[in-house]
């Protein structure tokens, strides 16, 4: 196992607008503030959920949940390139009680969603330096 330390990291709060497409909106928001790579933790209420899960035979399957559903945990690595690897736990209340779904989040629509991202990597200060101040981005 290899351990590394990071100098100059920061924590970024993300608040999704209703209707934002996850995880695409997360990657875009992080690019806007110059985060090249980070560890995300989030919760909220989502709909139109698409999870990539593993079935009983060990095959990958796509699970769709119309929603709304409670996103009780979303956690993993987000980067400014490629698809994020975000593990999700989704709870849906039904007539016979709550059902839990787990998998990699590949799509969802936010109703209410907040997350914190801890920036990772020594390239973090350089990535931030390349982003113009907020006044110049508008």
Q: What does this protein structure show overall?
A:
Strands 1, 2, 3, 4, 5, 6 and 7 form a 7-stranded antiparallel beta sheet that branches. Strand 5 and strand 6 form a beta hairpin. This protein is mostly beta strands and 138 residues long. The protein contains 3 helices and 7 strands, in the order ββαβββββαα. The model has no long low-confidence stretch (mean pLDDT 86). The relative contact order is 0.31. The chain starts with 10 loop residues before the first strand and ends with a helix. The chain is globular, with a radius of gyration of 16 Å.
Give the integer mean of the pLDDT values. Answer: 86
β-strand percent reads over 45%
The poorly predicted ranges are: none
* Rg for CA atoms: 16 Å
Oligomer: single chain
Main beta sheet strand tally, sense and closure: 7 strands, antiparallel
Helical content class: 10-25%
Topology:
Blueprint (H helix, E strand, L loop, with lengths): L10 E6 L4 E2 L1 H9 L4 E18 L5 E6 L3 E11 L5 E10 L2 E23 L4 H6 L4 H4 L1
Antiparallel strand pairs: 1-7, 2-7, 3-4, 3-5, 3-7, 5-6, 6-7
Features:
138 residues, 7 strands, 55% strand, globular
Offer a quick outline of the entry.
With 138 residues, this protein is mainly β.
């Amino acid at each position: 196992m290899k351990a590394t330390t990071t100098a100059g990291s920061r924590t970024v709060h993300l608040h999704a607008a209703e209707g934002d497409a996850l995880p695409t909106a997360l990657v875009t928001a992080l690019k806007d503030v110059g985060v090249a790579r980070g560890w995300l933790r989030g919760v909220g209420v989502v709909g139109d959920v698409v999870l990539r899960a593993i079935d009983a035979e060990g095959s990958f399957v796509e699970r769709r949940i119309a929603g709304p559903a409670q996103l009780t945990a979303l956690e993993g690595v987000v980067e400014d390139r490629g698809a994020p690897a975000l593990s999700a736990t989704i709870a849906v209340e039904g007539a016979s009680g709550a059902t839990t779904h787990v998998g990699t989040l590949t799509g969802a629509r936010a109703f209410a969603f907040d997350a914190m991202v801890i920036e990772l990597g020594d390239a973090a200060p350089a990535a931030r330096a390349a982003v113009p101040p907020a006044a110049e981005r508008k």
